[in-house]
Write a structure and sequence with these properties.
With about 290 residues, the protein is mostly helical. It contains 14 helices and two strands, in the order ααααααβααααααααβ. It has helices spanning about 1-10, 15-25, 25-50, 60-85, 85-95, 100-110, 120-135, 145-150, 155-175, 185-205, 210-240, 240-250, 250-265, 270-290; strands at about 115, 290. The chain has a two-stranded antiparallel ribbon with strand order 1-2. Helix 1 runs antiparallel to helix 11, helix 3 (about 25-50) packs across helix 11 and helix 9 crosses helix 11 (about 210-240). The relative contact order is 0.23.
Length: about 290
């Protein structure tokens, strides 16, 4: 249930986060959200479990391996968005980012010892197709656009793919090497990410316009998509059903597009419902085609 809540919270990022980044910049928005989120996480953890030093009492493989992958994912994702030359490329970067649910399933085979059936690859293909159709609701996806943007600005695509692989590895390694008692090092991961984002923000020279609306949006992003979503996902990956959650993760583009449509008062087209059927069907096939034991 916590993993599903993380998926729902992440699905609101586009609707609420886009407005925030337009007002104060990509690096300013993300660094502030992760700094606030990390501080909130540490305060909550200290109130519940005691001294923050206990956060560091984890296996080095989990603390530095999973922590490094967490930081790498965030930097790659927002770096790809920030370096995109136009909104069309941002959309295409988003498509590549949603390779991570499929990658989680694929990496779970060698890292978790799960047993795949042939239907797994069909399920992954169906779900990816649905994710692409859902994202196409926000713009005009075409092969010509991909080729043009790839030639003129290839770095965002490279970062998006690296980010997707980093998050898939993070999800699997956290389960394999992380603690099983529910006490993870996610607050440390978020604060480390914030430190790197602040460094990038200092080099970006972004112009920020702070208003009451931006402060409210920043508070929301800090609490829900950052603090709660990443904490819930970390716990779910370490103790929950990784195959089920990775399969359900394909719903993020569907939920994100639907929430954005409601927030922006738009009417989703028939393609979105087709995408929804493909994603849910693909997720079910993936779930039935990969045995966790």
């Amino acid at each position: 249930m916590l993993g599903i809540l993380a998926i729902v919270f992440w699905s609101t990022t586009i609707a609420f986060g886009r407005r925030l980044t337009e007002e104060i910049g990509v690096w300013t928005a993300t660094s502030a959200a992760f700094m606030m989120g990390g501080m909130i996480s540490c305060v909550f953890w200290s109130a519940r479990y005691g001294t923050p030093r206990a956060l560091l009492r984890h296996r080095p493989t989990y603390l530095f391996g999973s922590g490094g992958l967490f930081v790498a994912y965030i930097i790659c994702l927002y770096g790809a968005i920030g370096l995109a030359t136009n909104r069309q490329q941002v959309l295409e970067v988003g498509v590549l980012n949603y390779l991570w649910p499929a990658s989680v399933l694929v990496f779970s085979i060698p890292l978790q010892g799960f047993k795949p059936r042939p239907g797994l690859w069909i399920g992954i293909l169906l779900a990816i197709t649905g994710a692409v159709l859902a994202l196409a609701q926000q713009g005009d996806l075409s092969w010509a656009s991909w080729q043009r943007n790839l030639v003129t600005a290839p770095l965002p695509y490279v970062l998006a793919v690296c980010g997707a692989l980093a998050w898939a590895l993070y999800s699997n390694l956290s389960r394999r090497f992380g603690p099983t008692d529910g006490v993870g090092a996610q607050p440390v991961f978020v604060l480390a990410t914030a430190a790197v984002l602040l460094l990038l923000r200092s080099m970006a020279h972004e112009n920020s316009r702070w208003t009451t609306e931006t402060l409210l949006l920043l508070a929301y992003n800090s609490i829900f998509p950052v603090t709660l979503a990443y904490a819930f996902w970390d716990y779910a990956m370490r103790t929950g059903k990784i195959v089920l959650l990775a399969s359900l993760s394909y719903l993020i583009p569907i939920l994100s597009t639907g929430i954005s449509a409601m927030f922006l008062r738009l009417t989703p087209g028939v393609t979105l419902w087709v995408a929804c059927v493909l994603v849910i069907g693909g997720a079910m096939v993936c779930r039935l085609s990969l045995r966790e034991h």
